[in-house]
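1st attempt posting a full record on here, be nice pls
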Amino acid sequence: MKNGRRCEQATGRDGRLQVADAGTWLGVGTKISKGHLNMNESKREAMAKLTIPEAQKSRRRVGPVMVLVLVAVVLLVGLGIYAATGRADRKPVPAATAGAEGPAVAVPATPPKPGDVILTVSGYVIPRERIEISPKFQGTVRTITIKKGDRVKRGDVLVELEDEEQRARLQEAQGQLALAEAALTNALANFERQQMLASRQIDSVQALDGARRDHDSAVAQLTSARGQLALAQTYLDWCTIRAPIDGTILEKLVSPNELVTPQSFGGGRGPSTAFLAMADLGDLQVEIDLSEEDTPRVHLNQRCRISPETYPDNVYQGHVAEIAPEANRSKGTLQVKVQVESPDAFLTPELTAKVDFIAE
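the predicted structure (as tokens):
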């Protein structure tokens, strides 16, 4: 008994004292109060509240597994829907069986019958020959007698250029021709005289050779003078520009008093100084850019039916007149021209027309 209290003590396995009553001594030199023990008990209770029960731990482990299972189910359902729609989109392949248990054989496509339309393509109506007219030398327009849309005949006067310079050159050439003719007359008389003297042995053979040389030179000068005269006449004739064919004026790009020059090259192939364009509208074609996969269906002289987009009820007969020997790489097309047979005024150049290619 110490401090008026009884203390029961016993010796533990580790050699320390164990007490049965709080407020006594524990071990050697250590005293535990009752309040200290109560504080330790409250800490243990708090720790017990913070501890996760085993049931909740198992639920947390099950949560991620359920998410993975749901994702797998959604993927399987999506794959099933994709497979079902893929089978629905597939087109059945027509086949015929040799027997009840024989292998499947593909049925060939039915060949088109003569007269059937095997291909329809749109193109543009064009004249077979479009002629662009320009002067053969630089000049100034004096008069122009036509306008766009006029029908002209071969040889009709279209444009007249100023011709004062050409007329002066023609007169000069005529004067040179007269001089050449006079020189030839003199040379011929001298040559004949020398021939007579040489035959009588009055004059030398050398003088006869000189007279012959002068005569030949006069003949050459006369030929040159005649050529200059013809050239001057040609330039004068070029001052009057005439229609080269029967046709219709498509373009008129010049007016009186304007300066015109020769063209380098034209016909839609590049720069041009042409001041008139004309074509025979009774000779029309349809120009088509044919796709490369359709080229096996078209051949020369193949029959076609043509109908303009503006007048779809008008149908014209035609045939394939030209297939270009070279394709257009950038567009992947081949140019084809279909000749229109018996065109009329309803077919206007540069408008769209539909072409049906007929099986033969």
